[in-house]
Design goal:
The chain is mainly alpha-helical and 158 residues long. Helices cover 97% and strands 0% of the residues. The protein contains two helices and no strands. 0% of the residues are buried.
Length: 158
């Protein structure tokens, strides 16, 4: 009986050992699957990282090229600006002369307007004087009129 019990225990122990071995294999397979998943995720991450670095290098190169072009454009614009400043400096005395001429022209225009107004007034005075002269000549006796015309001619000849 002792042997039977011993055998049963041995058989029970072997059964436990077999179950443990099966569980160990299952756990190892699960661990291997997790490891493979983690490895694949890691490899994907590394690939993504390397792609990002490649893109960044390309972008950096492109930005450096654009920067060189912008620096060249800046120098060109700076040269043009300095040239324009020199031209403005050259034009400043001429602008002062133009301002003076404009002021003189404005003054002359004011005087012309003033003289035009005076001329208009004189023309009106002359028209009124002619009308008065015509009225006086019509109403004045003929012999007085002849004498006044002679006197007027005489004064003009002097």
């Amino acid at each position: 009986e002792l042997n039977i019990a011993k055998d049963e225990r041995l058989e029970h122990m072997n059964s436990i050992a077999g179950n443990l071995a099966k569980e160990k294999v299952i756990m190892m397979e699960e661990h291997k699957a997790k490891w493979m998943t983690t490895t694949n995720e890691h490899n994907d991450a590394v690939c993504t990282y390397e792609n990002c670095i490649t893109e960044l290098r390309g972008s950096t190169k492109s930005l450096k090229e654009k920067n060189v072009l912008l620096e060249e454009q800046y120098e060109c614009e700076r040269t043009i600006t300095l040239d324009l400043i020199d031209r403005v400096d050259d034009l400043t005395p001429g602008q002062t002369e133009l301002n003076d001429l404009y002021d003189n022209l404005s003054l002359a225009n004011s005087k012309i307007d003033e003289l035009t107004e005076k001329n208009y007034c004189l023309e009106n005075d002359i028209k009124q004087q002619k009308k008065l002269t015509e009225v006086i000549e019509r109403n004045m006796p003929k012999r007085v009129l002849d004498r006044s015309k002679c006197a007027a001619r005489h004064s003009l000849l002097k």
